[in-house]
């Protein structure tokens, strides 16, 4: 038996997992979010491209605010590392954490991926070392930029950055370029410098931002920031242990609502195909949460179920658990809140505010 039984357990507390948990909880399913902490979003110095969230919001603040929001609606948030997930005899799932065991009818695996980090010397992440062109290219308009790598992806990102600045280098860190002949022809016909010397030192300004790299050929080149393109390691161990199909690039195969090839298992966020962007991940989490609700909700009862179970009685509804019901009724977003406040009458003798006119 599990320590805690839920309708849904979400593994991974990034934007995708948090949004999935938000939706399943608000749609009446007992939900737990199990998060080990960290992740790519937590490393953000500033938040970009998330409408309504301003630049000065860091990743940790962004995620902690989201967790508090999810908890306020009645979800349980556990800080734990999930070591394994397996299906048990009744068709549900057992999620084994380092600290506890959790049971669930449906499981959402939002485990993301890890960027392959270049060797030092390096500038700080978010202050000259960046992993997302779509998030951070805007920061480097009309600034000198580097791209690290030897493959086609590095060459392409360097050429893409020419849309934003006229000063772009590819740094191969002492290795020969390995891109294709077609890519080589493209690089030769774009104003991109290929620097094969190894980096020996990284220099920063007073604010901690990258100023320049020193190279083993004695040169010093100024850069404001750049992008390592060394590959990604997708965290698919849990998915694979359950038999979920993977794509050729190592991501988890899903439908448009996050359903994997294994019934009851959903995958959302950076571990799935597509753009690695917070708004995209949030959209995937929302769609998965809605799909789980639609798959799991008991009402309306179908005609076949009515034949088997009989009509729905007043004692069968609402389907939401007593714990979620109590939380919802007490929540500031519940409809009864404004009605109660509006119905309150001042006690006799209380002064009324004067009209402005």
TrEMBL record:
Highest taxon of the lineage: Archaea
Keyword Signal: no
Molecular functions (GO terms): oxidoreductase activity
Keywords, in A-Z order: Flavoprotein, Oxidoreductase
Region spans: Disordered: 328-357
Pfam family, one: Pyr_redox_2
Gene3D superfamilies assigned: FAD/NAD(P)-binding domain (3.50.50.60)
Domain FAD/NAD(P)-binding: 6-285
Keyword Lipid biosynthesis belongs to the record: no
Acidic residues biased stretches: 343-357
PANTHER family: THIOREDOXIN REDUCTASE 1-RELATED-RELATED
Name of the protein this chain belongs to: Thioredoxin reductase
Organism: Halosimplex carlsbadense 2-9-1
């Amino acid at each position: 038996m599990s320590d805690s039984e839920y309708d849904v357990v979400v593994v991974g507390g990034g934007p995708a997992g948090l949004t999935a948990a938000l939706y399943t909880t608000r749609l009446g399913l007992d939900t737990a979010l199990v998060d080990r902490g960290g992740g790519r979003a937590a490393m953000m110095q500033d938040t970009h491209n998330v409408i309504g969230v301003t630049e000065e919001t860091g990743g940790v603040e962004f995620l902690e605010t989201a967790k508090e929001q999810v908890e306020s609606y009645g979800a349980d948030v556990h800080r734990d590392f999930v070591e394994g997930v397996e299906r048990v005899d009744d068709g549900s799932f057992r999620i084994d954490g380092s600290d506890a065991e959790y049971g669930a009818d449906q499981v959402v695996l939002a485990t993301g991926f890890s960027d392959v980090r270049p060797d030092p010397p390096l500038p700080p992440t978010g202050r000259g070392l960046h992993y997302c062109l779509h998030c951070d290219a805007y920061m480097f308009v009309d600034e000198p930029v580097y791209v690290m790598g030897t493959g086609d992806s590095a060459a392409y990102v360097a050429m893409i950055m020419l849309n934003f600045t006229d000063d772009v280098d590819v740094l191969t860190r002492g290795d020969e370029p390995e891109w294709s002949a077609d890519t080589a022809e493209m690089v030769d016909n774009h104003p991109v410098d290929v620097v094969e010397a190894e980096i020996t030192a990284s220099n920063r300004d007073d604010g901690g931002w990258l100023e320049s790299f020193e190279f083993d050929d004695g040169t010093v080149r100024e850069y404001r920031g750049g992008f390592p393109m060394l590959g990604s390691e997708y965290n698919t161990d849990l998915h694979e242990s359950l038999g979920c199909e993977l794509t050729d690039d190592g991501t988890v195969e899903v439908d448009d609502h996050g359903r994997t090839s294994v019934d009851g298992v959903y995958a959302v966020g950076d571990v799935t195909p597509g753009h690695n962007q917070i708004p995209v991940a949030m959209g995937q989490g929302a769609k998965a949460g809605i799909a789980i609700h639609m798959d799991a909700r008991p009402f309306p009862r179908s005609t076949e179920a009515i034949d088997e179970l009989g009509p729905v009685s007043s004692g069968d509804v609402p389907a939401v658990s007593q714990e979620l019901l109590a939380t919802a009724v007490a929540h500031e977003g519940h409809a009864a809140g404004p009605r109660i406040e509006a119905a309150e009458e001042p006690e006799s003798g209380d002064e009324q505010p004067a009209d402005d006119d």
